[in-house]
Amino acid sequence: MIWFWFGFFGLVALLLFLDLGVLHRKAKEQSLKSAALWTVGWVALGLAFSGIVYLIYENNWMGAHLIGCPPGHADGADAAITYVSAYLLEQALSVDNIFVMSLLFHSFAVPVKYQHRILFWGILGAIVFRILMLGGGAYLAARFDWIFYVFGGYLAWQGVKLLRNGDGDDDEKDRNRALRWLRRIVPVVDGDHGGKFSVIDNGRRALTTVAVCLVVIELTDIVFALDSIPAVLSVSQETFVMVTSNIFAIMGLRSLYFVLAGAMSKFKYLKIALAILLVFIGAKMIGHNYYNMGHLLSLLVIAAIIGAGVVVSMIASRKVSSTDEPA
Question: For the segment 223-251, what is each residue's pLDDT rounded down to a tens digit?
Fold first, then answer.
């Protein structure tokens, strides 16, 4: 499998280089049409990679074998389904992350033309953190069965918490504490400095508000990873499937942000769907020794919960729009 890892990370490095180094070298505001096209491209690429996963595990290339399948079994279909399930899970949980990013950009008064650069470096850091945390989670899951009960209970609790505290006041307090802590240890200068992360101020190096916003985004992503890592583990403990699905979902987060950030108020029921999804996944992990839900059924349930949240939100938004229209 080592060559698949080299090939995958080579592809990721190439895509990131083309994204920021070639196609988005200049700081400028991204149009909604451009963001939508990029989002479609990233989603298509992420879902298309499931075909590569299928071929790898169906043909047992370089000894590839899906955890949980009997030896000698052609497990390409199961691997592709678990990949898509994990990908959809991460995309759904990213919606809450997008909402927080929007609040952070607003609170730090970051111009739109600099937001893509912040998101690029933020996601690059997120990729590193996710690889480490996914590896650690897979290691624990493979050696300690009781960890599923811990992860399952945590996810169910997070789902209930999201239902009861949908406004995110606790997250806002955490961000403010992180900002105060950062200002105590390093000098920070306000104002527009051309999107730079640091400048010379009064003869010493200081961080700009753009850099501080990036640091807080990285910290909040680590917090969000505490939800997404156990969620992915509920679908599969196969490291290659977990990491590739997670990273492809994260890489498309930048363009998805510019599509959804201005319309988050129209998806008010999506948070309820995410809360139900977390409770479902938590219950699935807790009961993993008593009921083995098939990969396809799990995928259908995940897709149904996310789809219901989107559809109900859109219907409610249209009703509000029609009510607000003058007679």
Answer: 778 888 888 888 888 889 999 999 999 98
Q: Are 78 and 118 in contact (CB under 8 A)?
A: no
Element (H, E) at 96: helix 76-107
326 neighbors 279 (Cβ within 8 angstroms): no
Task: State pLDDT tens for residues 49-72.
Answer: 999 999 998 888 877 777 767 665
- In single-letter form, the type of residue at position 21 comes to G
Q: What's at 177, amino acid-wise?
A: R
Q: What backbone torsions phi and psi does residue 268 show, to the nearest 5 degrees?
A: -65, -25
Tokens of 33: 């049409």
- What's the first-to-final CA gap in the chain, in angstroms? 64
Tokens, residue 238:
């196969």
CA 180 to CA 252: how far, in whole Å?
A: 31
Torsion of CA 300, 305, 310, 316, to 10 degrees: 140
Q: Quick one: residue 199, left, alpha or beta (phi over 0 = left, psi -120 to 50 = alpha)?
A: beta
Phi/psi for 194 (5° steps) reads 70, 25
For residues 177 and 256, give the distance between their C-alpha atoms in angstroms, rounded to a whole number: 28
| pTM for this predicted structure | 0.84
Q: DSSP of 209-235, one letter per residue?
A: HHHHHHHHHHHHHHHHHHHHHHHHHHH
Q: How many residues does the chain have?
A: 327
Cα distances (angstroms) measured from residue 43 to each of 47, 252, 270: 6, 7, 19
Both tokens of 181, joined, read: 């802590």
Judging by DSSP bridges, how do beta strands 188-189 and 198-201 pair with one another? unpaired
The helix/strand/coil state of 28 is coil
DSSP state of 23: I
